[in-house]
Amino acid sequence: MDTVKTGIAGLDEVLLGGVPRHNNLIVEGPPGSGKTTLGLGFIYAGATEYDEPGAIVSFELDAAKLLRDAGGFNWDLQGQIDAGRIKVIQTSPAVLLSEFRNPDGAFAASLRAMGAKRLLIDGLTPMRLYAEVHDLPFREDIHVLIEGLNRLGVTTMVTAERDDSLDAVPAHERFVFDTIVSLTRGENKRRVQRRLTVLKSRGQDFIGGSHTMRIEAGRGIHVYRRAQSRPVYSNDQPTSDVRLSIGSAAIDTMMDGGIYQGSVTMVSGISGTGKTVLSVQFLSSAIAAGHKTLLVSLDEHPRQLMRNAGSLGFDLAGMVERGDLFIHYESPLELELDVHFDRIIKLVEEQGIDCVVFDSCAVYEMTSPEEVADYLYAMATFFKNRLATVFFNYESPELLGLSQISQELNGSHLVDNIILLNYVEISTILRRAIAIPKVRGSHNLQITREYVIAVGGLQLLDEASGDGDSAVVPQLPFSSYYGLLSRSPSRQSPLIEDAVAHGTKMPDSIQLPTQTQS
Question: pTM score, two decimals?
Answer without folding.
Answer: 0.81
